[in-house]
């Protein structure tokens, strides 16, 4: 465990279509854990067992109680996805896996650096079947080589993205050098900003959610702060032709 929280454990809920995302900060580094539930079947995916296994399991229990109160199928965890290899995103993984009895998933390029063995290695363009919902996995290289984001679509509702440490409100994730920064920003622009409309909500690995539309106007600022050339904003707009295509 990385340390106790000095603020309360406060689960939150983002419900849309037939999906519920239960989430909470697990430590004072504001590491988020996400519990994604397909309400029609109860199939449940945990994303980033970041720290403090009791909190991870409490969040799963919150989802379980919510389903029971609504008279829906009981939640049935199917796996734990780790968005990337950094330790603050898998500190509770071993304990959570043992308690839930589910397989682990992680990006192919990051899996060997995660001490808990990865049962399923995934990559850009792969999918996870979560009951009646298909989750799309999006590789965002730069913060780490194997960072994975998750796109969750529901008819008639804005898409949700779980972006790990690759995209935050106000900027992209930390990188070690200019080459990695450019690579991450390129992936974020091509695989997120050009593929998803402005009402798309993204939930980051730390802190609060935002929307693609709220951040889109800052892309040139993110380029210029690392001496990358500005682009015509028209090139950064959402392209419906790319929305359902692999980026």
Structure description:
This protein is of the alpha/beta class and 247 residues long. The protein has a single domain (12-242), classed as Metallo-beta-lactamase, Chain A, CATH 3.60.15.10. Helices cover 21% and strands 30% of the residues. The protein has helices spanning 53-69, 93-100, 178-193, 212-216, 219-224, and strands at 12-16, 19-25, 32-38, 43-47, 76-82, 104-107, 120-122, 127-130, 133-139, 148-154, 157-164, 167-168, 171-172, 201-204, 210-211. A 7-stranded mixed beta sheet has the order 1-2-3-4-5-6-7, covered by helices on one side. Strands 8-9-10-11-14-15 form a 6-stranded mixed beta sheet. A hairpin with a 4-residue loop joins β3 and β4. α1 (53-69) crosses α2. The protein starts with 11 loop residues before the first strand and ends in a 23-residue tail after the last helix.
Main sheet: strands, sense, barrel: 7 strands, mixed
Tally of extended strands? 15
Number of helices: 5
Q: List SSEs in N-to-C order.
A: EEEEHEHEEEEEEEEHEEHH
Structural class: alpha/beta
Q: What is the second-level CATH architecture?
A: 4-Layer Sandwich
Strand content: 25-35%
What's the pLDDT, averaged over the residues?
Answer: 95
CATH superfamily: Ribonuclease Z/Hydroxyacylglutathione hydrolase-like
Low-pLDDT runs: none
Radius of gyration: 17 Å
- CATH topology (fold) name: Metallo-beta-lactamase, Chain A
Number of domains: 1
